[in-house]
Design a protein that fits this description.
Elements (H helix, E strand, L loop, with lengths): L4 E4 L6 E4 L8 E3 L2 H7 L4 E7 L3 E4 L2 E7 L5 E7 L5 E6 L5 E5 L14 E2 L24 H8 L5
Parallel strand pairs: 3-10
Antiparallel strand pairs: 1-2, 2-5, 3-4, 4-9, 6-7, 7-8, 8-9
The protein binds zinc ion (2 copies).
The site of one zinc ion (ZN) has 9 residues, from loops.
Length: 151
């Protein structure tokens, strides 16, 4: 998604503006951690430069250590607990938006599906959209799969 984006939690305490800047294309993650964290079938992520995000309202956070040893911290509304974005200590300066919080979430087009090895059985991946059984193994593969489109 391009340009300046806005979004909010469901109670209205937290809203945000994501300035136009360096960002990846949105993708779905079907890993079991995302299923548990969202209470749903998958999570919609979009990596962006953290300094492009301006938050209005009080956030709180929760952290956990992934099997790799990385610490993942998720930030959301302190009141209604809607989760807005996540940070990971292995990629400082970047964060991952939860795309369902966007005001224009119906315009999200997923560039890829990750961890489809653990996707729920009823989820059908659209033809022509890349799907990985796990996730990209390095930064170059991430860039190739969901990095900004080259113009
Ligand atoms: Zn809220
Ligand atoms: Zn995941």
């Amino acid at each position: 998604m391009e340009g300046e984006l806005t979004g909010r939690c469901i109670c209205g305490t937290v809203s945000y503006t994501l300035r136009d800047g360096f960002r990846f294309r949105p993708y779905a993650c079907h890993c079991t951690d995302c299923q548990s964290r969202t209470g749903s079938a998958f999570s919609e992520h979009m990596l962006f430069a953290r300094h492009d995000l301006e938050i209005d309202g009080e956030l709180d956070s929760g952290s956990y250590e992934q099997p790799s040893g990385a610490i993942s911290t998720i930030w959301g509304c302190a009141k209604c607990k809607v989760r807005v974005f996540a940070e990971n200590n292995t990629r400082p300066g970047f964060a991952s938006l939860r795309c369902g919080t966007l005001d224009r979430s119906s315009e999200v087009i997923l560039a890829a599906h990750l961890w489809v090895g653990s996707k729920q059985s009823w989820v059908t991946i659209p033809d022509g959209v890349p799907a990985l059984s796990e996730q990209p193994r390095n930064q170059a593969e991430w860039m190739e799969l969901v990095g900004p489109l080259k113009t």
